[in-house]
């Protein structure tokens, strides 16, 4: 499947991370613009931030939980006010990336450094206590839960692969293994970024400079959405739609990632309806 269209939700962001959907509302984090975007049927609300948030999710309380990109903490947001959720001072030295929330309120969040310096995966329990559960991850990024929460996928962006872990009863992870090797199957431009899971055990993965979103299952590429731009992140939306975020450089001569650091990108979020979104075969 190839698309340059879809239903445009917002198209004037600098970067568009962590699309999320809950109760008819789409949330997007504009990390480079230090804004949290709330897209409702009646209109868009922009929350300007003192420090940007990266990965987001929802706690059992309904509050949004967000990783502060340049601060060692994870905070909660009730739609009006922010409150501390987990203070990671003394535990992390890099910046926080994507996160995912379990039904009991446990949060897994990435700690990333440079493309050459491995990062880590942290677990925050429902009381806000944090610990490191996995190390030596090459720029950990998108996180996905599959198999009713028994399997956790981590996109290792600068290793070009999706790594799987088994989730232990105590919240730790074990049995590390390669779930899908994008570089081996598709080539070096395809670096995994944001990702989301589906009930059939497949996952959609944003493939960055591959300018595509890939649906993967059991080691096989089962669907693909090509886009006009750098593929950042994805998430299931309403009524079988898939939320996609992409970015382009304002100067075609400047690569997207370089342009992002210079505030020289334009990002958008769209909703598309993949032909195989509900396909179990």
Provide structural commentary:
With 281 residues, this protein is mainly beta. The protein has one domain (10-272): TolB, C-terminal domain (Neuraminidase). 4% of the residues lie in helices and 54% in strands. It has 2 helices and 24 strands. The strands form 6 sheets. Strands 1-24-23-22 form a 4-stranded antiparallel β-sheet. Strands 2-3-4-5 form a 4-stranded antiparallel β-sheet, with no helix packed on it. Strand 22 and strand 23 form a beta hairpin. It is globular, with a radius of gyration of 17 Å. The two termini are 16 Å apart. Residues 277-281 have low confidence and may be disordered.
Helix content: under 10%
Quantity of strands, as a count: 24
Count, helices: 2
CATH superfamily: TolB, C-terminal domain
Q: Strand order within the widest sheet?
A: 1-24-23-22
Shape: globular
Rg, please?
A: 17 Å
Biggest beta-sheet profile? 4 strands, antiparallel
Beta-strand content estimate = over 45%
Arithmetic mean pLDDT: 95
Here the CATH topology equals: Neuraminidase
What is the CATH C level class, in words? Answer: Mainly Beta
Main structural class: mainly beta
Total discrete domains: 1
Summarize this, please?
Belongs to the SMP-30/CGR1 family. With 281 residues, the chain is mainly β.
Write the layout of secondary structure elements.
Elements: E1 7-13, E2 17-22, E3 25-30, E4 35-40, E5 43-48, E6 53-58, E7 64-68, E8 73-77, E9 82-87, E10 95-101, E11 107-112, E12 119-124, E13 130-137, E14 140-146, E15 151-156, E16 161-167, E17 173-181, H1 182-186, E18 195-197, E19 203-206, E20 212-217, E21 220-226, E22 230-236, E23 242-249, H2 256-261, E24 265-272
Antiparallel strand pairs: 1-24, 2-3, 3-4, 4-5, 6-7, 7-8, 8-9, 10-11, 11-12, 12-13, 14-15, 15-16, 16-17, 18-19, 19-20, 20-21, 22-23, 23-24
InterPro entries: 6-blade_b-propeller_TolB-like, SGL, SMP-30/CGR1_Lactonase
GO molecular function, one term: hydrolase activity
Family: Belongs to the SMP-30/CGR1 family.
């Amino acid at each position: 499947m190839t698309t340059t269209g879809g239903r445009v939700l917002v198209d004037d962001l600098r970067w568009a991370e962590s699309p999320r959907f809950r109760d008819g509302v789409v949330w997007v984090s504009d990390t480079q613009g230090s804004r949290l975007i709330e897209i409702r049927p009646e209109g868009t609300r922009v929350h300007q931030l003192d420090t940007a948030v990266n990965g987001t999710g929802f706690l059992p309380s309904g509050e949004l939980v967000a990783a502060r990109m340049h601060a060692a903490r994870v905070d909660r947001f009730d739609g009006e006010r922010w409150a501390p959720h987990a203070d990671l001072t003394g535990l992390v030295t890099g910046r926080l990336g994507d996160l995912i929330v379990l039904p009991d309120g446990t949060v897994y969040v990435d700690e990333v450094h440079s493309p050459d310096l491995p990062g880590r995966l942290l677990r925050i329990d429902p009381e806000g206590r944090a610990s490191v559960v996995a190390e030596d991850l090459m720029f950990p990024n998108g996180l996905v839960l599959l198999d009713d929460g028994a399997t956790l996928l981590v996109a290792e962006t600068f290793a070009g692969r999706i790594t799987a872990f088994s989730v232990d009863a105590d919240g730790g992870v074990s049995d590390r293994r390669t779930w899908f090797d994008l570089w081996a199957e598709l080539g070096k431009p395809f670096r995994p970024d944001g990702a989301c899971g589906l009930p059939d055990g497949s996952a959609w993965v944003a493939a960055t400079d591959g300018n595509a979103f890939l649906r993967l299952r059991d080691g096989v590429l089962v669907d693909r959405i090509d886009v006009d731009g750098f593929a950042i992140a994805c998430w299931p939306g309403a009524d079988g739609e898939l939320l996609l975020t992409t970015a382009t450089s304002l100067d075609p001569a400047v690569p997207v990632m370089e342009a992002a650091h210079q505030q020289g990108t334009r990002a958008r979020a769209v909703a598309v309806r993949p032909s195989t979104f509900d396909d179990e075969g």
